[in-house]
Amino acid sequence: MRSRPSLRLTVILLLALPLAHCSCQRDPGADTTATVTAEAELSVPAAGPVPADTARAAAGEAAARAANLAASTLHAYLGALPAGDRSRADAYWSGGRPGSPAGDELLRGIDGLRSMQVRNDPPQALDRESPPRAFEIPVRLRLDTVDGPAQVAGSYRLRSTIDGRGWEITSASLHPVLD
User: Fold this and answer.
1) Which range among 44-53, 102-111, 117-126, 130-139 shows the weakest confidence by mean pLDDT?
2) CA distance linking residue 97 with residue 87, whole number of Å
3) CATH number of the domain that residue 109 is part of
4) What pLDDT does residue 35 have?
């Protein structure tokens, strides 16, 4: 029966074996003899400071991911409006319904809204958190209604939910665009 230390060493060596055959190529002219000692020590590199470039890149990626999720939430809300499902659309607002009057009442009040094309500019962070917890998203909407085409422009403000798992609309400001 093996003793515990030699069993551990065997497991460590078996786990390290695939690393020995990675894409590393040996120089054929180099001396390939190696000496293995029986008393090997497992060393783990010490955790050092994260380079500033890496930290900035990670923060930038987190901010971009948050901005994309906020914009996706806004697109889901705007997609629910032509379907006429107000309860589903209202669920995207903070508190489960828009304010009174809603900042986008112009859009919500259109009867016969068949479809819309949504174009948004990049979300603008409203705070200095990393990632941001609030964004303002400028939008331009091309509407197809029973009365003909129309255009609306403005912006929506969204913030992260309290639990941080989603986004909710806090305000809107829309106005008609004349051709």
Assistant:
1) 44-53
2) 8
3) 3.10.450.50
4) 36
Q: Hunting for tokens 């949504």 — which residue is that?
A: 118
Tokens 């470039």, residue? 53
Please state, in angstroms and rounded to a whole number, the distance separating the CA atoms of residues 81 and 89.
6
Among residues of the chain, what percentage have pLDDT more than 70? Answer: 71
Which tens digit of pLDDT belongs to each residue from 8-40? 555 555 555 454 444 444 444 444 333 333 343
Nearest one of 7, 16, 3 to 42, comparing CA atoms: 16
Helix%, strand%, coil% for the chain, nearest 5: 30, 25, 40
Which amino acid is it at 122? Answer: P
To the nearest whole number, what is the mean pLDDT of the chain?
79
- Burial class from Cβ neighbours inside 10 Å (0-12, 13-18, 19+) for residue 97 reads middle
Phi, psi for residue 36 in degrees, rounded to 5: -110, 130
Tell whether 116 is covered by a domain: yes
pTM: 0.68
Q: How far is Cα 12 from Cα 71, in angstroms, rounded to an integer?
A: 47
Tokens 């508190």, located at residue: 95
> Number of folded domains in the chain?
1
